[in-house]
Every structure is written in C-alpha cells, then in structure tokens.
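We modelled the chain as a single entity of 84 amino acids. Its sequence is:
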Amino acid sequence: QLDVTQAIPISLIVVAAASAVAAVPKLRAGHVQWRLAAIFVVAGVPATFVGTAIGRHLPQPVLLVGFAAIMVIAGLQMLRDNAD
C-alpha cells in the first residue's frame, strides 16, 4: 500500500500521461491556444514547488482529504463539461 506522499505524484503522472495522449489530436488539428498553455506552465511550475514544500509540513490525513477534494471537484467539472 502506498502512502500519500507516494500516491499523489503517481496519480499525477498517470493524469499527465493520459492528458498528453488526449492532447495529440488537438495539437494536430491546431486547436491549442499556445498563449493560454504558456500561462498555465508559467503559473504551474512554481506552484508545484510551493505545493511540495507545503505538503512536507502537513500530516498525511490532511493531504489525503485535500487531494481527494481536488479530485472530486475535477471529476465533477469534467462531467459537467461533458453534459454541455
């Protein structure tokens, strides 16, 4: 069984890999908004380091609840977007 500090990065790697595969058709079709993608990269990379630093100081149950909440919100958002 994995602890939270192992499970979170592994799940994020899986999500990143699935997203990369799903992005290929959009890239080929020219539907990528590169300026918006750059904004996400510029904001996301530093946020990753900040989140990692904060996560080292939080107990595992807090990390687990926070991660679960983010996953539920993301899932609901995807379901809502598919309904449109």
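As a brief sanity check on the tokenised model: The mean pLDDT is 89. DSSP finds three helices and no strands in the chain.
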